[in-house]
Amino acid sequence: MDYRVDPFDLQLFEAVVASGSITAGAEAMSLSLAAASARMKALEHRVGVRLLERSKSGAVATDAGRALSRQAHRVLAELDSLHVAMSAFGHGLRGTVRLLCNTVAMVEALPPRLGRFLATHPDIDVELQEMSSDASLQALRGGVADVAIVADHVDTGGLTARPWLEDELVALLPAGGRPRASVRLVELLDQPFVGLGAESGLGRFIQMQAARSGRVPHHRVRVSGFEAVARLVEAGAGVAVMPRGAASRWLTPGLRIARLQEPWARRTLLICHSAQAPSLPGVRALIEALVEPMAPSMPSTLSSAVSSSASTSSGPASTSAGPSRRASRR
């Protein structure tokens, strides 16, 4: 059996079976009687069985013809669905955008903006994955992601990067002892840590900063969310480093916040993508939605929680494709 069946022949066959006549089927498909008859004979030759019983009064499907008609109806319906789906892609109405982001963006600033985007773009899906800033840019350059939200300590050379939001990492400490407005990470390393998973973007970042002083944080426990981190610190399990927004949200009388003195603790989150990415309608729509200011009813939990000395930068203007100004901190 030759499986290379022309969908047009299936449509013609359906028209012949429905009308009971090759002549009527030919008219329905805008064919001459001779052309329609030739196509039906060629179809029978391809499938290897007689499909129609022909007579002077018309044409009736054989048992094999009725079986083919049932299958043809399903196949043609699937082809129609395929055509509709592909047309949507062709017009930029449907698609999937691959978005990578660091821990801070994932849990703080991104959810309300991403929720707004998904609500207003029902035909665009987002594949979201948390990843360290370095790994995100590597994936972006490798073409396995469309957009990445990263901290500005990484080298964005060769990519388009635009400032998005200000971010500050702080120390979360149990109340008691001598209150201090600020501490250095190396001082915290003398105490046990409570943190997120070792594979989280923030976990990797703190590990990297500690390694610069030749130290490794001793994590007594790792959990999956900042609320759990705060509750464990409050219980005396250790100290933690987290975004100021999260620390402020879960602050209780049993906790206190201290600024980290290191410059890397105050960062700008960047939206990065290749120069070609905005040519894809779904990617362009997501980027525009991310940089659009949030309505007063949905304030950014991140930008509202940073220190008063930090300025929020969420404008749409892109930086040059050269290295980040803070690349020397890598």
From TrEMBL:
One of its GO terms (molecular function) is DNA binding. The keyword Transcription applies. Residues 1-62 form the HTH lysR-type domain. Keywords: DNA-binding, Transcription, Transcription regulation. Residues 297-330 are annotated as: Disordered. Gene3D superfamilies: 3.40.190.290, Winged helix-like DNA-binding domain superfamily/Winged helix DNA-binding domain. It comes from the Bacteria. GO terms for cellular component: cytosol. Residues 297-324 have a biased composition (Low complexity). It holds the Pfam family HTH_1. Belongs to the LysR transcriptional regulatory family. This is HTH lysR-type domain-containing protein. It comes from Roseateles aquatilis.
